[in-house]
Design a protein that fits this description.
By secondary structure, this protein is an all-alpha fold. It has six helices and no strands.
């Protein structure tokens, strides 16, 4: 019985010492934490000062380039003189030709017949790649991908 009293006393003493060590660490860590906060605040004020020096308002007006586009009214756009409209049409046609030559995107065939739809799903289920399915079924890749996505969503 005397041993249990001794063990209990040592346990209470260790708990008290543990609590005391926690509180003493907090006071030391609070001081170091306050010091770190002050250092961070100083850095922030330095950065704010640097930002204020770099503001666009402080840039001289001579160094800012003028915008090269002139404002245009709706009248000028819609009722332009004949010679300007021909030039504009010509440049637009050239740009359209370039755009169509560069980007020709295949369109999805939403009206895939049932036979092709079943073949696509069967080949997909058997593990064929999209390119292999395209070779087997007479449809474009985007259509095959659409049918497969539709099949997965409705499964």
């Amino acid at each position: 019985m005397d041993i249990w009293i001794l063990v209990l006393a040592l346990l209470v003493l260790s708990i008290i010492l543990l609590l005391m060590s926690l509180f003493t660490k907090d006071s030391n860590s609070n001081a170091s934490l306050n010091k770190k906060v002050e250092e961070q605040a100083e850095k922030i004020t330095e950065l704010q000062h640097m930002i204020n020096q770099l503001k666009v308002d402080n840039i001289p007006a001579e160094s800012v380039k003028e915008d090269f586009m002139q404002p245009v009214t709706a009248q000028e756009v819609y009722f332009a003189p004949k010679e300007n409209s021909d030039v504009i049409k010509e440049t637009l046609e050239q740009e359209d030709l370039q755009a169509t030559e560069e980007v020709v995107q295949p369109r999805v065939n939403y009206d895939v017949n049932d036979r092709n739809r079943e073949d696509i799903i069967r080949y997909y289920s058997q593990g064929y790649t999209l390119k292999e399915i395209e070779d087997e079924v007479d449809e474009e890749l985007v259509t095959i991908q659409y049918v497969i996505d539709e099949y997965i969503e409705n499964r």
